[in-house]
Specification:
Elements lengths: L1 E4 L12 E7 L4 E12 L9 E6 L6 E6 L1 E2 L14 E3 L4 E7 L8 E10 L6 E7 L4 E6 L2 H11 L18
Antiparallel strand pairs: 1-9, 2-8, 2-10, 3-6, 3-7, 3-9, 4-5, 4-8, 10-11
Length: 170
């Protein structure tokens, strides 16, 4: 299992921010992503702040949904779309968070887990773009996950590496 959250969570996320993350499990496995809390600026169509979740490992993968709003709002009071629990059809999910230049909220926190066939290895790829430039890093152990997350100031993950293999058992 692992954990991810928006930048600064539970404090307000940054304005004018973009962050992409890929969660990948072993071939034959699927990924379950469960949002414990979700609070992004709501506007019809999620045109200002949003989280896109795609079924695959990149921005061109099939769109599962574009989400914004507050998971604590009742359906009667809000037409916001919040993710809840998401399951991939394959071994990867791509998440892309973006915020505009005005209203910021607390963001989101979620856990993820691989399910299906016995877990072997995984890798998590982070892509962070803020104003200018892109940093791309592929990580192969729990220690690298935390080091890359610290460096990118993007999202936080925790997972446990199998001692006998180079990789991360989610």
């Amino acid at each position: 299992t692992g954990h991810l959250s928006s930048i600064n969570y539970p404090q307000d996320y940054d304005n004018n921010y973009e962050c992409g993350s890929v969660i990948t499990a072993s071939s034959g496995q699927k990924i379950r992503l469960d949002f414990a809390s979700f609070d992004l600026e709501f506007y019809t169509g999620c045109v200002y702040d949003s989280l896109e979740i795609r079924d695959g490992d990149n921005i061109n993968s099939t769109l599962i949904g574009t989400y914004c709003g507050d998971s604590n709002s009742s359906a009667a009071n809000s037409s916001a779309a919040t993710p809840g629990v998401i399951e991939s059809s394959g071994s990867a999910l791509f998440l892309f968070f973006q915020s505009d230049g005005t209203t910021a909220e607390a963001g989101y926190t979620a856990t993820f887990e691989a399910f299906g066939d016995v877990s072997e290895n995984c890798w998590i790829q982070h892509e962070k773009t803020k104003f200018t430039g892109t940093i791309l890093a592929t990580v192969y152990s729990a220690e690298h996950v935390l080091a890359v997350c610290d460096m990118l100031n993007c999202v936080a993950y925790s997972c446990h590496a199998k001692p006998e293999k180079k990789g991360c058992n989610i």
